Amino acid sequence: MGMAEFRLTLLLLFRSRFGTMLLILTGLVAGGAWMGAQFSPRQPATVALDVGLSMIRLAVPFLMLVQIQDLVAREVERRLILNSLTYPRSRAAFLLARYAAIVTAAWAVTWVLALVLGLVVVGVGKTYAQATPVALGAPYLAVVTACCLDFAVVAAFAALAASVATTPNLVLFSGLGFMIAARSVSVIITLLSREQELVTGAQWYHQGLQSVQWFLPDLAALDIRAVALYGKWAFLPTPVWGLAVMPLAYSCLAVSLACLAFERRQFA
């Protein structure tokens, strides 16, 4: 991966009003968390943190998918990729640099939003002493780190989609679909196994979703916000090491396939 391409991608991100989007997201997360706290007179800090984390988990991947769509798929569509590939580097290096720069920027945004959210939660918590206060120390850092791993997986799939997409919009829509499916399949499987009377043919749906789960990472396992909401490490899934191994392994696999497909793609 070329450092020059990495720096160029970061420069392109900031030229595409990335800073403006960060300010807008910061205002939305802070405002949404504060407003959410106003609807809970008994646990305002917990509600504020929960709402803020939900907004971060939705907004940052969307921003990231838009950037991958613009800086990879749209360059292919406009044939600008032909100019980029005239430099002495491989196609894989080009794609890896774009992926790494976008993920790095997304992680930076995540930590900025997490800091702002933490300040809002502290401010909200001063108005009401909760019986179970939120944990904004190590548990909160673990939650934010898990979010970053989640985003890396979504970006890896988007890079794979961009390496073969014939239209830029496919990257955004397929990335959003992948994110929703990966975050919900295991939850639905668990629900159907406990409440089979919810739908007709629950067993058939359960078996079908279990087959799909072989091809999707379990991003729902990376949503460990309960650790910070209630300050208890017992909410962590077991084994704990799987929280890091699973997303890293899937990201490496998806990016490797993306590089292979990008190397073999024909640009007419």
Q: Report the total helices.
A: 10
User: Biggest β-sheet, characterized?
Assistant: none
Q: Which spans have pLDDT < 50 for at least 5 consecutive residues?
A: none
**How many whole angstroms does the radius of gyration measure?**
20 Å
Net shape? globular
For the record, give the distance between the C-alpha atoms at the N and C termini, rounded to a whole number.
25 Å
Q: Kindly estimate the percentage of residues that lie in beta strands according to DSSP.
A: under 5%
What oligomeric arrangement do these chains adopt?
A: single chain
Question: What letter string, H or E per element, gives the SSE order?
Answer: HHHHHHHHHH
Output mean pLDDT: 84
Q: Structural class per helix/strand content?
A: mainly alpha
Helix content: over 70%
The number of domains is 1
What is the strand tally? 0
Fold and architecture overview:
This protein has 268 residues and is mainly alpha-helical. The chain has one domain. The protein contains ten helices and no strands. The protein has helices at residues 3-15, 18-38, 44-77, 81-84, 91-125, 138-164, 169-194, 202-213, 225-230, 242-264. The longest helix has 35 residues, at 91-125. The chain is globular and about 60 Å long.
